[in-house]
Amino acid sequence: MRALILALLMALVSLASHAEEGSCSARSAEKKLSGAAKASFMKKCSRDAQAACEVAATEKKLAGAARASFTKKCARDAVGN
């Protein structure tokens, strides 16, 4: 139970930091990344955004199509594509 609570708190902090810093695309441009470094950064950022969105969907107690729709939009907004 403690591990679940800790994971949720970490995801919330991560989600908050993503919201403050902007989209993955904006952050990669800010860091002036290109090529393999940008691809790697975008992959990790996308994965982190997806996880944070899953936690947000769980907190909102979404299920089924509503959860899938919310998670897809949330991750797409976080990545910035």
Entry summary:
It is built from four helices and no strands. It has 81 residues and is mostly helical.
Overall pLDDT score: 84
Q: Count the E strands.
A: 0
Helix count, DSSP H or I runs of 4 or more residues: 4
Uncertain stretches? none
Indicate the percent of residues in helices: over 70%
Shape: globular
The tally of domains stands at 1
Q: What oligomeric state do these chains adopt?
A: single chain
> Helices and strands, in N-to-C order?
HHHH
Task: Give Rg in angstroms.
Answer: 13 Å
Strand residue content: under 5%
Global structural class: mainly alpha
How far the N terminus sits from the C terminus, by CA atoms, comes to 36 Å
Tell me about the largest β-sheet.
Answer: none
Protein name: PsiF repeat-containing protein
Signal peptide: 1-19
Keywords: Signal
Give a written overview of the molecule.
The protein is mainly α and 81 residues long. It has one domain (2-79). The chain is 84% helix and 0% strand. It has four helices and no strands. It has helices spanning 2-21, 24-30, 35-59, 64-79. Helix 1 (2-21) packs across helix 3 and helix 3 (35-59) packs antiparallel against helix 4. The longest helix has 25 residues, at 35-59. The radius of gyration is 13 Å and the shape is globular. Keywords: Signal. This is PsiF repeat-containing protein. Residues 1-19 form the signal peptide.
